[in-house]
Specification:
By secondary structure, the protein is an alpha/beta fold. It has one domain: Glycerol-3-phosphate (1)-acyltransferase (3-Layer(aba) Sandwich), CATH 3.40.1130. Helices cover about 45% and strands about 15% of the residues. It has a seven-stranded mixed beta sheet, with helices on both faces. The chain is globular, with a radius of gyration of 18 Å.
Length: about 250
């Protein structure tokens, strides 16, 4: 019976997102004719915050923050655990500075959602052209961080199932070292409530734990990423011990 109610509530949540995103995205497109940058960004964050509010009210998905005292005042490269869509939607509303996501260019073609994203200060890359993609990440990442933005990159690349560890890639630490910015490791237990590749949400609490910024000066990308990975995966086991065996 619980699964049935979760499915019904999740269907209502998806409907809620579909009904709200269309007028919101159209408003963003209109406003973007006259404004850009942070104005458009915070308009989009307004919808993302609304979606997270919908997940809370409709599906009973709550968030609990740890380590907010570790949030710095200056730009960083955020390196979060990636388990579901939840953190993609939630982080812009939880962080004190504008976030600049690195994402594949294909998302720009998603109706309404992608169109609005195209108007924001984000780094969209063509993954089929790896060297060109890295040059774009480096150039745009430096430019946006110089403006005060935080760059967010998911080191596992794609979502990992609850209790699993993806392959941590060093693109984020490489960017941090090249721009002389620290990295910020973050653990998040979102798959507890919003499973990977699913829109059937379960009520519960998602823990978000923010680690201390790690300086990148004088470090090697792979070695720094191993430190990030160790912290995140150790913290994941502390926050969600029931998801891990052995």
């Amino acid at each position: 019976m619980g699964m049935f109610f979760n499915a019904v509530r999740s269907a209502l949540f998806v409907l809620f997102m579909a009904v709200t995103v269309i007028p919101w995205a159209l408003a963003v497109l209109v406003v973007s004719i006259f404004a850009k940058g942070n104005v458009v960004y915070w308009m989009c964050v307004g919808w993302l915050t609304t979606a997270i509010w919908g997940a809370k009210v409709i599906c009973g998905v709550h968030a609990r923050m740890h380590g907010t005292e570790n949030l710095p005042d200056s730009p960083v490269v955020m390196l979060p655990k990636h388990q579901s869509t939840w953190e993609t939607f939630a982080f812009p509303g939880l962080m004190p500075h504008p976030l600049c996501y690195v994402f594949k260019r294909e998302l720009l073609y998603v109706p309404f959602f992608g169109w609005a994203m195209a108007r924001m200060d984000m780094i969209h890359i063509d993954r089929s052209r790896r060297s060109e993609a890295w040059r774009s990440v480096l150039a745009q990442g430096k430019r946006f961080m110089d403006k005060g933005h935080w760059v967010i990159m998911f080191p596992e690349g794609t979502r990992a199932a609850r209790g699993e560890r993806g392959a941590y890639k060093s693109g984020g630490t490489r960017l941090a070292i090249a721009t002389l910015r620290p990295v910020l490791p973050i653990a998040v237990t979102s798959a507890r409530c919003w499973p990977r590749k699913s829109f059937v949400l379960r009520p519960g609490v998602i823990d978000v734990s923010i680690g201390k910024p790690i300086p990148s000066t004088g470090r090697e990308p792979d070695e720094l990423m191993r430190e990030v990975e160790t912290w995140i995966e150790t913290e994941m086991r502390r926050l969600d011990p029931g998801a891990y065996v052995g």
